Every structure is written in structure tokens, then in C-alpha cells.
């Protein structure tokens, strides 16, 4: 199977020290010790990311708790052995002890990935698998091409619940947070 150029795995496994020695301008993720280059995001990807991040940041800031919102690129080290490091598009981390200057060490509470047209299976299959096994509480997949949001609330055993972009969707890790994708789609004209 030929993979798109941006997602070609490197030929050998990498250590944390090797990963940290890479230039900061090189975006990579590591799954089971194998590094994969990441494609640059599209304009619509970045517009959706900005809208969602702004909504989540405003909500979390208003709660005045320990949770923090991070947009990509910010590393999440899910495992040391085998080394697994991801860069979710958006994440919420509520355990400040998981954070250091360089990354989140352990599973964030909430992750959103915006599907890349070059490799949608990465978000729907590979990342869903890793996020579930390493303890992410809730994982959303936003697919601009299909105009769908897939919600995986692992903590509540709700898997692959699909919503169209005209829906208002509850963020399950909070009791009072809803995101109107119809507002976002209208604002961004998608």
C-alpha cells in the first residue's frame, strides 16, 4: 500500500531524545516508535480550529478551574514504551500535573481532530484506537469534507456517534457545554 508522501513512516524507530532533537519546524507524530511526518493544514482546517478553540477557551476560562485548552502544535506523549507522541488539533487537559514546558504527559481529557483530506483514516481509525487505549475521555472528529462530526465519549461508552454540521453537540465531559456547528458552518460559509 502506498501512503501519501506527507504520511510516509520513517525507516527506523525513534527515541524520545531523537524526537526532541528534531527541528521545531518539522511536525511529526510517533506511533509505537515509528515517526510519521504531518501534512500542513488547509485554510478551512485552520478556520475551524480557530472557531472551536475560541469557544472552548472562553468556556474553560469562565469555569476558573484547572483545565487548559491547547491548539496544535503541542505534543502529547501517550506512552514511553513504545514511544507514542501525537499533536491533536485541539485538546483540553484538566490535570495540571500532566503538563510540563514541552508537552502533555498522558492522555488529555478532550481531543478534537479536524480531518485531513490526505489521510482521513488516520483520525477515524488509528487515532481513535490510540486515544481510547491511552485514556482520553472524549474524542471528536470534525470532517469538513463530509460536513460531519463524530463523537467518541469513551468514558461513557458512546462510540462513533455522527452529527451533521447543522447540529448542536454536547461536550460530554462538561454538563453545560454545547457547540453549535450550524453557527460555525454559517460563519465560515461551509
Question: How large is the count of helical segments?
Answer: 4
Secondary structure: number of strands: 14
- The portion of residues forming beta strands comes to 25-35%
Low-confidence stretches: 1-7
Structural class: alpha+beta
Helix percentage: 25-40%
Q: What is the makeup of the main sheet?
A: 6 strands, mixed
| Morphology call | globular
**Order of neighbouring strands in the sheet with most strands:** 4-7-9-10-11-12
Round the Cα radius of gyration to an integer and report it: 16 Å
The mean pLDDT is 91
Defining key terms:
alpha+beta; six-stranded mixed sheet; 190 residues
Describe the structure.
- It contains 4 helices and 14 strands.
- It has a 6-stranded mixed beta sheet, sandwiched between helices. A 3-stranded antiparallel beta sheet has the order 1-3-2, with no helix packed on it.
- The protein is α+β, with helices and mostly antiparallel strands.
Secondary structure elements and pairings:
Layout: E1 9-13, H1 16-21, E2 28-31, E3 34-37, H2 43-63, E4 68-71, E5 75-80, E6 83-86, E7 90-93, E8 103-105, E9 110-114, H3 120-133, E10 138-143, E11 148-153, E12 158-164, E13 168-170, E14 178-180, H4 181-188
Parallel strand pairs: 5-8, 9-10
Antiparallel strand pairs: 1-3, 2-3, 4-7, 5-6, 7-9, 10-11, 11-12, 13-14
Amino acid at each position: 500500500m502506498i501512503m501519501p508522501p506527507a504520511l510516509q513512516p520513517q525507516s527506523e524507530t525513534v527515541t524520545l531524545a531523537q524526537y526532541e532533537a528534531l527541528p521545531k519546524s518539522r511536525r511529526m507524530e510517533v506511533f509505537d516508535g515509528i515517526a510519521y511526518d504531518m501534512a500542513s493544514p488547509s485554510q478551512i482546517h485552520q478556520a475551524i480550529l480557530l472557531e472551536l478553540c475560541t469557544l472552548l477557551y472562553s468556556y474553560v476560562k469562565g469555569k476558573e478551574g484547572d483545565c487548559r485548552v491547547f491548539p496544535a502544535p503541542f505534543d502529547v506523549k501517550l506512552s514511553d514504551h513504545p514511544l507514542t507522541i501525537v499533536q491533536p488539533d485541539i485538546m483540553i487537559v484538566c490535570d495540571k500535573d500532566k503538563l510540563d514546558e514541552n508537552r502533555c504527559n498522558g492522555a488529555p481529557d478532550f481531543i478534537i481532530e479536524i480531518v485531513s483530506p490526505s489521510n482521513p483514516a488516520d483520525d477515524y481509525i488509528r487515532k481513535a484506537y490510540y486515544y481510547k487505549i491511552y485514556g482520553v475521555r472524549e474524542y471528536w472528529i470534525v470532517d469538513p469534507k463530509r460536513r460531519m462530526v463524530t463523537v467518541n465519549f469513551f468514558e461513557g461508552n458512546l462510540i462513533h456517534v455522527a452529527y451533521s454540521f447543522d447540529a448542536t453537540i454536547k461536550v460530554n465531559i462538561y454538563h453545560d457545554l454545547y457547540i453549535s456547528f450550524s453557527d460555525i458552518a454559517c460563519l465560515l460559509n461551509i
